[in-house]
Specification:
- The protein is an alpha/beta fold.
- It has 3 domains: about 1-45 and about 635-705, no CATH class; about 50-365, 3-Layer(aba) Sandwich (Rossmann fold), CATH 3.40.50.880; about 365-630, Glycoside hydrolase/deacetylase (TIM Barrel).
- Helices cover about 30% and strands about 25% of the residues.
- It has a 7-stranded mixed β-sheet, with helices on both faces. Strands 22, 33, 34, 35, 36 and 37 form a 6-stranded antiparallel β-sheet that branches. Strands 23, 24, 25, 31 and 32 form a 5-stranded parallel β-sheet that branches.
């Protein structure tokens, strides 16, 4: 007897030789479901424009291999949206053909298209007038076809954006400002700024503003500016007897000039009468982050998302034309930021454009579209042994699974201090690691053998330089640590990594990638889930996934919370909010902690673990390796959506298995899907329908347009 599960709520059991009869019944059931969809679908008069993916507009001759383009394609792939490239010539030809737009939305990116001819500008307006939606980003088209600013006024796209901006003829070197990005807390969450990645903000009207001088060869003023945040966090971790030595870090902007604010008339107040609090985007260690934006002028009538307290509009959505066109104006350089270790805003605003504005379907970011957290434990030194015993006695290690990383050498701060685990000679530490593996945790390497020394001294230039002992190189320290852990838990099991002090030289990442490491702790791209790292505009290690540290304001670990007076109640509230946020958005973030601080704040830790349990099946703990391997497999999924006889047909395939893959279809645009072939279940996911594959290499499902 063989049970066959049908995906529209029916099941059939058949016995040979009556197979043919039962198969016909099964087929009839599916045809009936399709017929119901078709009956409605043929009356819907659906046009192709409602089903085409979004497009990224690039100059003729530019290809997907250009890192500035690749960063957008990678962001769309990670967020689960289909994104086509379209060139200027193709776009203008499409618009000249008349009728509804072939693409529901077009992204006009920064950094790749600062020059635009009048013909292209007019085509963008024609497209929006015809009902197309536009995501207009920063310096797109601020120069004319000959490479000059307008002789008067601001950008030619001012009417489309809803405000005047890029006012070079008037402001000169004060055209591009630097300052915080602020918004109501709910609006920042809307663009995927998670709890902890922003802090309450108070506007200081007495401060002078910063500006980045611009020119025709530097239209955004970004040359010489360095927004990167991947550098070593460079603080000395707290021990049981000493407090954390916390640094003062800031973004480096060597070319910036100071001057009075020039924003004159605006209605961009983000302090409306509401229960919301005004927040500013912040970073671990850095505090409020500083972003470039053009100074804007004029009242904004659209849906305000974010603003600069010094320079005006940062992001908002407004209507354009009478045919339903809409514009998401983003007044900060998303392409540049993605390439400078801060991809959160590109990913978040792309999701607003594709999912919220255009109701585009997406391939879910998480296994089975289930949100969660990665908890990365750092075992730095022998000082963690007693707290590890305490956590074991209180069943913490029975939770998870977690990513647990050890610095295995005999020393911690300097050679010969004897403060380290000395794993090769420490049977108790060895047993802990073996037990962790048995309990389902992922054991990884925490850097270079001697925690503080490696973290504070490894640089981009000293891979093969001798260390202070005169015997080993800095690369040797990575090798010693990894080999010691492998000797305990087995070869090829050490596929996760965390860097002491957040120090990740590019040579170290390449070394790790060559040794099959799949996921690593990362100090850049904070606020994001697992992503592939871009530095200096280029993807560094395509086969590894970075797991950005998730901060609570400028702090992230229990030791920091304790040493700087963050109340336990606030920390627990943040953990709960982060869990709720990830469950709601079906995403994940990485938090980290050390056993000493966790033991000292055990009530907070237990409260967080209990709250995660209370979320039930909607929440999942993920290891770095588990999510990294899922993301690598997810990148092999091929899927399409096409219009067939009035309904939308989705076809997906994978070379091995579609198990754990899921699709989210906004209810605002789709009826409940019906699975035609392959194994999947359809679930009500709140604002989306969720189609979750349960195996097989191929899947077909359909839905009606609304």
């Amino acid at each position: 007897m063989k049970p066959v599960a049908l995906n529209h709520g029916l099941s059939i059991t058949y016995l040979f030789p009556r197979v043919a009869c039962r198969v016909l019944v099964r087929l009839a059931c599916r045809l009936a479901a399709i017929g119901l969809l078709l009956l409605t679908g043929l009356c819907a008069n659906t046009v192709l424009a409602q089903n085409a993916p979004i497009a990224l507009l690039v100059p003729d001759g530019m290809t997907a291999s250009d890192p500035r383009v690749a960063s957008w394609l990678d962001a769309a792939r990670e967020e689960g949206f289909r994104l086509d490239l379209i060139t200027d010539t193709q776009f203008m030809f499409m618009a000249s053909a008349g009728g509804p737009p072939a693409y529901r939305g077009v992204i006009l990116p920064d950094q790749v298209h600062s020059q635009a001819s009048d013909a292209l500008v007019n085509t963008v307006y024609t497209y929006a007038n015809a009902g197309g939606s536009v995501m207009l980003v920063f310096d797109f088209g601020v120069l004319d076809g000959a490479g000059f600013y307008p002789v008067s006024g601001g950008s030619r796209f001012g009417p489309l954006a809803g405000v005047d901006y890029c006012l070079y003829a008037e402001l000169g070197d004060r055209t591009t400002g630097l300052g915080p990005i602020t918004g109501l807390e709910s609006q920042l969450r809307r663009i995927s700024v998670p709890p902890g990645k922003s802090m309450p903000y108070t506007v200081n009207d007495t401060e002078q503003a910063l500006f980045l001088p611009v020119s025709t060869s530097n239209p955004g003023g970004l040359k010489g500016y360095d927004h990167s945040q991947e550098l070593s966090l460079a603080f000395v971790p707290r021990t049981r007897t000493t407090k954390t030595a916390f640094p003062s870090k800031s973004i480096r902007f060597a070319t910036a000039v100071q001057g009075p604010k020039v924003l004159s008339t605006t209605t961009l107040s983000a302090t409306a009468v509401t229960a919301d609090t005004l927040h500013g985007i912040s970073g671990y260690v850095y505090g409020f982050l500083t972003y470039p934006s053009y100074v804007t002028r004029g009242s904004y009538a659209g849906d305000l998302i974010a603003a600069s307290p010094y320079h005006g509009l940062i992001a908002g959505i407004s209507a354009y034309g009478s045919a339903g066109g809409r514009v998401l104006f983003v007044n900060t350089p998303l392409t540049y930021l993605k390439g400078a270790t801060d991809g959160m805003l590109m990913h978040g605003l792309l999701t607003v454009f594709a999912h919220d504005m255009l109701n585009q379907p997406r391939l879910a970011k998480q296994p089975n579209a289930r949100g969660g957290l990665t908890l990365n434990w750092h075992l730095d030194s022998q000082d963690a042994m007693e707290p590890m015993r305490f956590l074991k006695a209180n069943n913490v290690w029975k939770d998870g699974p977690f990513s647990i990383h050890m610095t295995a050498g005999p020393d911690v701060i300097s050679f010969g201090d004897g403060l380290g685990f000395n794993l090769p000679q420490n049977p108790e530490a060895q047993q802990f690691l073996r037990d962790f593996v048995k309990q389902g945790h992922q054991v990884g390497s925490h850097g270079g053998w001697i925690h503080d020394y490696y973290g504070l001294n490894a640089t981009e230039d000293n891979q093969f330089a001798l260390t202070a002992d005169g015997v080993h190189t800095f690369q040797d320290l990575l090798d010693l640590n990894r080999n010691a852990i492998q000797a305990v838990i087995g070869q090829d099991r050490v596929i996760e990594y965390s860097s002491p002090e957040g120090n990740n030289p590019k040579w170290a990442l390449r070394w790790l990638e060559q040794r099959n490491t799949v996921g690593y702790y990362y100090g850049g791209d904070t606020g994001m889930g697992p992503t592939r790292d871009y530095r200096e505009g280029v993807m560094t290690t395509p086969n590894m996934w970075a797991f950005p540290v998730m901060p609570f304001g400028i702090y992230a670990t229990f030791e920091e919370f304790q040493d700087f007076g963050v109340p336990d109640a606030d920390v627990l509230t943040w953990y709960k909010q982060l869990i709720d946020f990830n469950v709601k958005t079906r995403t994940s973030r990485m938090i980290y902690m050390h056993p000493p601080g966790a033991a000292d704040s055990f009530n907070v830790l237990k409260g967080m673990l209990d709250y995660a349990k209370s979320a039930g099946r909607s929440f999942q703990w993920y290891t770095m390796a588990g999510l990294a391997n899922f993301m690598a497999s997810r990148n092999q999924v091929a899927w399409t959506e096409r219009v067939t006889l009035g309904f939308r047909q989705f076809t997906a395939s994978h070379p091995v298995s579609l198990a754990s893959m899921a699709w989210q279809l906004p209810k605002a645009a789709y009826t409940r899907p019906v699975v035609i072939s392959g194994g999947a279940v359809v679930e009500d996911g709140g604002g989306d329908w969720v189609v979750r594959a349960i195996g097989g290499k191929s899947l077909v499902f359909i839905s009606l347009p609304l």
